[in-house]
Amino acid sequence: MSHSNRDKDGNPLIQRYTPNERSNHWITAICFILLAVSGLAMFHPAMAWMAMFLGGGQWTRILHPFIGLVMFVSFAVLVLRFWHHNHIDAADKQWMKQIGDVLNNREDKLPKIGMYNAGQKMLFFVLIASMCGLLLSGIVIWRAYFAFYFPIEIVRLAALLHAFSAFVLICSIVVHIYAAFWVKGSIGAMIRGTVTYGWARKHHPRWFEEVVRKNRD
Fold first, then answer.
1. What is the tens place of the pLDDT at every residue in 86-129?
2. Which residues does the UniProt record annotate as the domain Cytochrome b561 bacterial/Ni-hydrogenase (predicted)?
3. Mean pLDDT, residues 65-84 taken together
4. DSSP assignment, residue 9?
5. Does residue 79 have a pLDDT over 70?
6. Which CATH number does the domain housing residue 203 bear?
7. I want to staple 169 with a disulfide (CB 3.0 to 4.6 A). Which of 120, 125, 130, 181 is the partner?
């Protein structure tokens, strides 16, 4: 992680995400949006109009599972990239106990945060669980290729699990997007790849210190 260029005010910037990490994130995000709208279109007649995003009902049924596989693979690569930043440690447990300080932006009172805070780490594991639930249940209910291998009871249970996992995933992503807007500078980090020294020092001081130390070496 090296020094990058400077922002428009001349402040030095730190690289938070590489171009590869960013494109990996946005491929997953685009797949998620397409899957959410097409899945909702198939889930309930009131949302059937959303099928237009993938070219109508027939195309929606054909494309949805394939896009699902692309999202799962892309997400799996993200998990491998960021796994080592998401171990829950003692500072995370303390962060959770001080959730009042978190919600009131009293970051000076919190333990020093690394690359991600405890909330982001928990979201990471919820996303992994719901993605695995979607993949396994999705294969069972994929009519064109796999559904006929399973008894109807299993297919019905898989359809329920698929809907439940999708609900958890959509809620989690809503929280993820809300948090990205709430912590100013987060979206810029995932678009440009860089953050200011001030942002890093304020929101992720332990990570900031590690990056500065590496730059000195």
1. 999 888 899 888 888 877 877 778 888 889 999 999 999 999 99
2. 16-193
3. 96
4. T
5. yes
6. 1.20.950.20
7. 130
Does residue 54 sit in the same domain as residue 129?
no
Same domain, 111 and 26: no
* Residue 9 is assigned to a structural domain of this protein: no
Element spanning 106, H or E: none
Nearest to 137 by CA among 115, 156, 120: 156
Judge if 102 and 209 occupy the same domain.
yes
Region 135-155 average pLDDT: 93
Q: What would the two tokens of residue 73 be?
A: 């693979």
Average pLDDT over residues 123-138: 96
SS3 18: coil
My answer on whether 130 and 44 are in the same domain is no
Query: Domain limits at 120?
Result: 94-216
Instruction: Identify whether 87 is a catalytic site residue.
Output: no
Alpha carbon 4 to its chain centroid, in Å, reads: 25
More confident residue, 21 or 12: 21
DSSP 113: P
Which whole number is the average pLDDT over 39-62? 90
Report d(CA 125, CA 87) in Å as an integer: 10
Quote the CA–CA distance of 162 and 172 in Å, as a whole number: 15
* Counts for the chain of helices (H) and strands (E), in that order: 9, 3
Q: How many domains does the chain have?
A: 2
Same domain flag for 117 and 75: no
Q: Report d(CA 12, CA 147) in Å as an integer.
A: 55
Residue 81 and residue 103 in one domain: no
